[in-house]
């Protein structure tokens, strides 16, 4: 396995409140990594560091290194970085536009004007997010008319449309019912053939089902990270065991 993103001595504070402590972590290419841990332990904060979403938060101070394919992300262009490291949020957030225009938005913003090319990107991205068959006959209808689960797959398709390398997912199923959740989970397992996926989840069964590697965080520290099967069957740290057996959190 090859490391695609890594952190070294990563510390982060919001104002005077330190939230991440000395995180040393490597994310492996074309695999699914789940970040788990009790509420407030810093999972989303760590995820947001990976495409510099925390830059948008005033008073957020980061020290240490984060590298993406060997390059320091703190000195790279954040717009290009976010194209390569896309993000899917907790609540589906389609634009109030047609299904087609949601997907074409990113490529157009990057200068693509050719209709045939855009048509092909829209089809490929929707197929990649396993949504094409459900929407191919209504591409020019509003995305807001889709169900919650369809909207979340649309948001994943919108991320795929700009040809990312890594997809960050922050609790992507927390607003969805079990059937829609199962579809997204299957999609995540499919996506790792072509992409690196990092997912924050509160749902330990979900982490166990979809991820190859799991990192357990507690109070801003990465307590333990290992193969998901090891974390859930034979964790090294007692704290991890207590968390995964439901004794706290
Ligand atoms: N924009 C912000 N400004 C100030 N503090 C923040 C901000 N975002 C998060 N925090 C604080 O940082 C800590 C970690 O939050 P974070 O959202 O990363 O945790 P989490 O593990 O993802 O939690 P949850 O599982 O509840 O989403 C919390 O104490 C939170 O209140």
Tally of DSSP helical segments: 10
Rg result: 18 Å
- CATH arch. level architecture: 3-Layer(aba) Sandwich
User: What would you call the shape?
Assistant: globular
Q: How many domains, as an integer?
A: 1
Structural class: alpha/beta
Strand content: 25-35%
Distance between the termini: 32 Å
> Could you please say which CATH topology applies here?
Rossmann fold
Explain what the structure shows.
One of its GO terms (biological process) is phosphate ion transmembrane transport. This is Phosphate ABC transporter, ATPase subunit. Residues 5-244 form the ABC transporter domain. With 249 residues, the chain is of the alpha/beta class. It has a single domain, classed as Rossmann fold (3-Layer(aba) Sandwich). Helices cover 36% and strands 27% of the residues. It contains ten helices and ten strands. It has helices at 43-49, 78-84, 99-109, 115-128, 132-135, 148-160, 178-191, 204-210, 228-233, 238-244; strands spanning 3-14, 17-28, 32-36, 60-68, 71-72, 85-88, 166-170, 196-200, 213-218, 221-227. The strands form two sheets. Strands 6-7-8-3-9-10 form a six-stranded mixed sheet, with helices on both faces. Helix 7 links the parallel strand 7 and strand 8 (196-200). The longest helix is centred in the middle third of the chain and has 14 residues, at 115-128. Adenosine-5'-triphosphate binds next to helix 1.
Strand and helix layout:
Blueprint: E1 3-14, E2 17-28, E3 32-36, H1 43-49, E4 60-68, E5 71-72, H2 78-84, E6 85-88, H3 99-109, H4 115-128, H5 132-135, H6 148-160, E7 166-170, H7 178-191, E8 196-200, H8 204-210, E9 213-218, E10 221-227, H9 228-233, H10 238-244
Parallel strand pairs: 3-8, 3-9, 6-7, 7-8
Antiparallel strand pairs: 1-2, 1-4, 4-5, 9-10
Helix pairs in contact: 3-4, 3-6, 4-6, 6-7
Bound molecules: adenosine-5'-triphosphate.
